[in-house]
Write a structure and sequence with these properties.
Helix content: 40-55%
Strand content: 5-15%
Bound molecules: zinc ion
Largest sheet: 6 strands, mixed
Structural class: alpha/beta
CATH class of the largest domain: Alpha Beta
Low-confidence stretches: 1-15
CATH architecture of the largest domain: 3-Layer(aba) Sandwich
Number of strands: 18
Mean pLDDT: 86
Distance between the termini: 65 Å
Number of domains: 2
């Protein structure tokens, strides 16, 4: 054995496992250590507002984590590549009868040994590439690789196809990404082998037992530093945030910091039959005595996109609508918001409802039907996304009198589908009068944002058809082009709503009709370092317009009262019932906006096919950021949530310590009443 030895002699005999000397591939692992540390801090903007003395705690914790991870991988790879595993397996061949004398046996031993060398290189390359890919993906999409895979596989092959299709990821692009991944994997394996060759020319040895002891010491140091750091609330918050970013962290602290709140038990989800039994009495009316209701759900429509240039029709419509002080989506993602909007329940229940057929069929839609409404669905979208079509309209769509979604369009592009829907809607307007609820879903405003070739596109320059899966890092110029794509798509959808309004006016039915326009969620353009939606419950991803134009003879609350009201998706159907003179209360959480006196909102972060585990509660101009202990949570079984931080409604941090008696009392005064509606037994 040649070369230096870093082992300590106290680690035992050469022959024992602890004393085994492992050759470390330092030419590979040293750059990896630097890479891991670099990736840990790729999102420097998260350190904004921290003083230097706070930053170094976070840096030290991240560096310790990287050291432990790289150290463990290096030790494991050294053991496999250098000695133990190879000898063990080759020895098995040598025990074959006549093996030692047999030349073909020797060739086989060599082949097995070489093969094992490659296997150890693959085993070293995979976690490194996985870690780097994960950091990259999280930095741009806010989703870890494992989470992404679980989102895809969580609900079976059919849903997997629906999800991939609805993301707009083209098949050739997906194949290209997979091929590139395989290519990088092969290159990584070759690099491990080559660097091992370089390292072996001047070997560096570590005794296995000593390496393990050192790692154990680092783990203890990590625990001590973390314990000390998290005693100071602001440092804890930043470290918790940093941990969320890292694909792997060793930690001894409960994630989240802030306040732990016990007895957070959600009321159980009612079955469809129970909910129907709890519906208040309603006197049915003839359709002629009920106004037609047009409810437009525009994909990814930001609350602040409405202006005379981008949305001339919606801007004009807005003058006749209730002017709510604030308007927020039920969540930052499509299917969870649909759930909130059409069941009038908190989106916290969305995934649980999708799993449980006994709960399918929206009680608030049923109530509108009992009142005398027929329900007509015209959707350009995949309404079967996470079974939401069945959750809302029942397992056989029995709550819809007519039903049309993307599956009826045979592969037409979004603008084409949206136009066809508008055409069919206008056709239907003339075929009846009153008592019809039209639920219209437009899709052109989904990224990559599209409009027909013959439609005006005044916002220039535009980015070329743009797929953000390949183009995470956009330059400021590209961002302008992407935003212009979005505005052109919004302008197109605005024109579709405008044509429906024109038809209603020309038929003299406008004043007698109820119109409602909203977005399913907002859309981010790097305001918080992310693109599109579904990755953070920040304001740009959750602020949507809620434009409600009542029919002429309906009650209009005073403007001063509406200005104090926060409209959310879950309030929309109860408000419709109230406008129609029916009891707005029922087996749901939403309130009539004609009576709502609070500015409360509950905004849920989607979690794929699993129960949402992060959400925000907005009240009194502040936003509490809450989460369950784990992303695998079953919300109906949980009894503890954490209030990890408080911001203002625009997501700026509020400098307030939560873990003091005073902080707790303030949180209770601000968020207590809305949290008590979600968790009746919550303990402060
Ligand atoms: Zn959406």
């Amino acid at each position: 054995m040649t070369g230096r030895c870093m082992g300590w002699t106290l680690c035992g005999a050469q022959a024992s496992w602890a004393g085994r000397r492992v050759r470390v591939n330092y030419a590979f692992w040293w750059p990896v250590f630097l890479l891991f540390n670099g990736l840990n801090y790729h999102s420097w903007e998260r350190f904004d507002g921290l003083v230097e003395s706070q930053v170094w705690v976070v840096l030290a914790l991240g560096a310790l984590n990287a050291t432990v991870l790289v150290g463990a991988l290096a030790l494991g790879e050294g053991l496999l590549a250098d000695r133990a595993w190879r000898r063990l397996v080759v020895a098995a061949y040598e025990e074959e009868p006549g093996g030692r004398a047999n030349e073909s046996g020797q060739g086989r031993r060599l082949a097995v040994s070489t093969l094992l060398g490659w296997v150890s290189a693959v085993l070293a390359a995979v976690p490194v590439l996985g870690y780097a890919t994960d950091s990259w993906l999280f930095g741009h999409l806010g989703v870890h690789v494992v989470t992404g895979l679980r989102l895809l596989w969580g609900s079976g092959w059919d849903q997997c196809r629906v999800i991939v299709e609805s993301t707009g990821l083209r098949a050739p692009v997906a194949v290209g990404v997979l091929a590139a991944g395989a290519g990088v994997g092969i290159a990584g394996t070759i690099i491990v082998r080559f660097t091992r060759f370089l390292s072996n020319r001047s070997p560096l040895h570590v005794r296995f037992g000593c390496g393990l002891l050192t790692l154990a010491g680092l783990v203890v140091l990590l625990a001590v530093l973390e314990g000390w750091g998290t005693r100071l609330d602001s440092r804890a918050r930043i470290w918790q945030e940093q941990r969320r970013v890292l694909p792997f962290t060793l930690s001894f602290q409960e994630r989240g910091g802030g306040l732990a709140l016990d007895r957070a038990r959600l009321s159980p989800l009612r079955s469809a039959a129970e909910a129907e039994g709890a519906l208040p009495l309603v006197v049915p009316r003839s359709p002629g005595r009920l106004p037609d209701i047009f409810l437009f759900v525009v994909e990814s429509l930001r609350g602040d996109i409405l202006d005379a240039c981008t949305t001339p029709n919606l801007t004009e419509l807005r003058h006749e609508c209730f002017a709510f002080g604030e308007s927020l989506a039920a969540s930052n993602a499509t299917e969870t918001s649909w759930y909130g909007l059409f069941t009038a329940n908190y989106a916290l229940y969305a995934a649980a409802a999708a799993r449980e057929p006994a709960t399918w069929g929206s009680a608030s839609l049923k109530q509108l039907r009992r009142l005398g409404y027929s329900v007509h669905v015209l959707a350009s979208s995949h309404l079967d996304y996470r079974n939401m079509d069945q959750v809302i309209f029942g397992s056989g769509h029995q709550l819809a009198d007519s039903f049309l979604d993307i599956r009826d369009f045979g592969g037409a592009e979004a603008p084409e589908r949206d136009r066809e829907i508008m055409r069919r809607l206008i056709e239907q307007i003339g075929r009846g009068c009153g008592g019809r609820l039209f639920l219209v879903f437009y899709e052109s405003t989904h990224h990559d944002y599209s409009w027909p070739e013959d439609a005006p596109a005044p916002f220039q320059p535009v980015a070329s058809p743009w797929n953000f899966y390949l183009n995470f890092r956009v330059s400021p110029q590209e961002l302008v082009g992407i935003k212009n794509r979005y505005r052109n798509a919004v302008l197109f959808v605005d024109s579709l709503v405008g044509q429906v309004v024109s038809r209603l006016r020309s038929e003299g039915r406008y004043n007698e009709s109820v119109l409602l326009v909203t977005g399913d969620h907002g859309e981010e353009f790097l305001e918080h370092g992310r693109l599109v939606h579904a990755n953070e419950t920040c304001r740009v991803q959750t602020h949507v317009p809620i434009l409600l134009k009542p029919a002429r003879d309906m009650a209009r609350p005073p403007a001063s009262a509406l200005a104090r009201t926060t409209a959310t998706h879950i309030d929309i159907l109860p408000t419709m019932l109230d406008l129609l003179g029916a009891n707005p209360q029922g087996p749901w959480a939403g309130e009539s906006l004609l009576r709502k006196v609070t500015d409360d909102a509950v905004i849920v972060q989607e979690n794929g096919s699993r129960d949402p585990w992060e959400f925000c509660v907005q009240a009194g101009g502040f936003k509490a950021w809450l989460h369950y202990p784990s992303s695998d949570t079953i919300v109906s079984l949980e009894h503890r949530i954490r209030l990890s931080k408080v911001t203002d409604a625009s997501d700026s941090p509020v400098n307030r310590r939560l873990d003091t008696a005073e902080g707790r009392a303030w949180c209770r005064a601000t968020f207590g009443s809305v949290l008590a509606r979600i968790y009746p037994d919550l303990q402060w």
